[in-house]
Amino acid sequence: MNHLNTLEREAIHIFREVAWQFTKPVILFSGGKDSTVLVHLARKAFYPIGMPFSLLHIDTGHNFPEALSFRDKLVKQFNLKLTINSVQEAITAGTVVDVGGKIPSRNVLQSHTLMKAILTNGFDACIGGGRRDEEKARAKERIFSIRDKNGGWQPYNQRPELWNIYNGMIHEGENVRVFPISNWSELDVWQYVLREDIELPSLYYAHERQCIRYNGKLLAVSEYINIDDTDKIITANVRYRTVGDMTCTAAIESTAKTNEGVIEEIINATVSERGQTRLDDNISDAGMEDRKMKGYF
Amino acid sequence: MDILRFITAGNIDDGKSTLIGRLLFDTGNLKQDVSDSIVNIETNNANLAFITDGLRSEREQGITIDVAYKYFYTSERKYIIIDAPGHLQYTKNLVTGASGADAMIILIDACNGVTEQTRRHALIASFLSIRNIVVAINKMDAVNYEETVFNTIKKNFQNTADSLLLDSVIYVPISALIGDNVFVNSDKIAWYSGDTIMHYLNKFQPPLMPDNIFRFPVQIVSFSNGMYICLGTVVSGIVSVGDVVEISPEKGKAKVINITIGFFDSETAKAGDFACLYLSTINPVEVGDVISHAIDLPICSHEIEAKICWLEETPLNTEMDYYLQINSKDTLCRISIIKHKINPESFHEEDNKTQVSINEFAKVTITTNDMMSFDPFSLIPSTGRAILINTETFYTCAAVIIE
């Protein structure tokens, strides 16, 4: 799997560039497969010195319990440092307002908490698992993406980015979002997970779950969504292709219980990763672009 | 399975985004929901260009402003498509995209022929030493698939290619809209005996890293147990445990005590390996140093002869300081001499020593504060390229190819 070597080499080079160019870099960690692969790559990149990054979790309060327990286990296993910033705290303090409704998404609210975490902790580079094949606005973003004082992306004035030379120079108050696995596809991630034997949360493999059908998508029954009489609760064999909030991530019907099974399923899928599982991208034609301009990851 | 990265360059309306849409569509790499999102519900026509134009303004204006990356697979390899804008004013974005490309598809509208922009694309390919070039002469359906139209454009472009020393350029007559000669051979172009775009892409080889001269630019250093533990990637050649190596610039010798790649020990590290070298030396190793063998050292100097492409709105100023970043090291520098500019039309070197503006190419001498270690780009690409950074805006203001 020569292509995995190339992608791995590219990502490890990026991690090491971040380490010498920034004073306080952090890995944005959600417990999902992409950020888990980031942690693996970072461990590999800095062996035997140890990775010079801590992890930052923007906790929306709507997490899958499996993702949280996985997060805590990983942190303990590899002796990592974890900072948690909570969206619920911002809501309680009244800085941001929960949208409410049947499916109360906190996706947009994350940006505020992320910026607060960046300012309070002085993080100058946030390393994320965003991939260009996920979404059309992400397909346009540089590997080192400069964000202004409000965390905003300026898609029409991005710096040139040449070869694998990354320019991380920033002014006071600015920060950089770094995407080491920009050029990986969903399939590449899974092939890498298989090759490197990386453990992922159980959510990614087929299991039985109580769900409702919402706009044609399978949404897990949880305390965070408001179920009424019109909803029919069904028990389905499902897995998750992406893991975000319980309120904005849909499950897919699946029998894939192993990495090999998942890979086969992805090769045969007729619907894209986010198209199938995200309730938040399809809000408008430029949903992701708008969120990124307002500080979203 | 390997990876090939190719860039598509074309003028506005040459059908560049349509070609990409066609490649994704015909290779079966477009998922149902993505195809649905680009179909106009009223007319039921798919706008293939919408697949790559990811920003709102791009879709509104129907143009590509910045680089977009798309991916597809064939049974042989993974492809990374670098979709770059054609506009002169966005040349900096085209250079960004092209710097990472193993191959370039230059699109020419059969109705318009070779234009100023086409010549500019060829110049960029030459500047960055992109060796695999396909000229796709598009919209053949609009000129009744006439062979003479194809031959005239081919002859014109070949003149450009000859003056830039671009060899083995491949010419393919296509219609991206209809799909002629993109993924399947067209029966409407019987006079054409060559192959499809996809065929040539499958045949191209990504450039190999040089394997003769050892280079290891140091990205991270840690000192422990009397050894310098150096992280980096071998960009050329090979190193073995026990080798005596040289630390540049001019820092003396070291012995390789151990090597790890990933989590495991290794006897050697070769080009392409991200490695960790454990060096025993009395000389402190720093980030940005280059490790080599003593028999073929990199150039260590304060003076760098280079070709540059200027990328910032503010023109080059020989009175101003810039940062020069090579590998993992930056230093203050001046562009002390503008030797000549390259005329974008004739490609001649002009003795014009006035300012170098955005999108212009020039040959210069750069004088650095710190002594730098580097190689000619033609010898070892990774250690032969650099960027210039504006010290106030921090904008990346030039691409630098070391001569």
Description:
The complex is a heterodimer of chains A (297) and B (403). Chain A has helices spanning 2-21, 33-46, 65-77, 87-93, 110-121, 186-196, 259-268, 273-277, 287-293; strands spanning 25-28, 54-59, 82-86, 125-127, 144-147, 175-178, 207-214, 217-220, 234-239, 252-253. Chain A is of the alpha/beta class. The two termini of chain A are 30 Å apart. The mean pLDDT of chain A is 88. The model of chain B has no long low-confidence stretch (mean pLDDT 90). The relative contact order of chain B is 0.11. Chain B is globular and about 75 Å long. Classes of the chains: A alpha/beta (297), B alpha+beta (403). At the A-B interface, α1 and α2 of A face α2, α3, β2, β3 and α4 of B.
Fold blueprint:
The complex is a heterodimer of chains A (297) and B (403).
Chain A: H1 2-21, E1 25-28, H2 33-46, E2 54-59, H3 65-77, E3 82-86, H4 87-93, H5 110-121, E4 125-127, E5 144-147, E6 175-178, H6 186-196, E7 207-214, E8 217-220, E9 234-239, E10 252-253, H7 259-268, H8 273-277, H9 287-293
Parallel strand pairs in A: 1-2, 1-4, 2-3, 4-6
Antiparallel strand pairs in A: 5-6, 7-8, 7-9, 9-10
Chain B: E1 2-9, H1 16-26, H2 32-37, H3 56-61, E2 68-73, E3 77-83, H4 91-99, E4 103-109, H5 116-127, E5 132-138, H6 147-163, E6 170-173, H7 197-203, E7 216-224, E8 227-233, E9 238-240, E10 244-248, E11 252-261, E12 264-265, E13 268-270, E14 274-280, E15 290-293, E16 299-310, E17 322-326, E18 329-342, E19 349-350, E20 361-374, E21 385-390, E22 396-402
Number of helices of chain A: 9
Radius of gyration of chain A: 19 Å
Structural class of chain B: alpha+beta
Assembly type = heterodimer
Average predicted confidence as pLDDT of chain B:
90
Which strand order do you get reading across the main beta sheet of chain B?
2-3-1-4-5-6
Query: Main beta sheet of chain B: strand number and arrangement?
Result: 6 strands, mixed
Largest interface: A-B, 56 and 63 residues
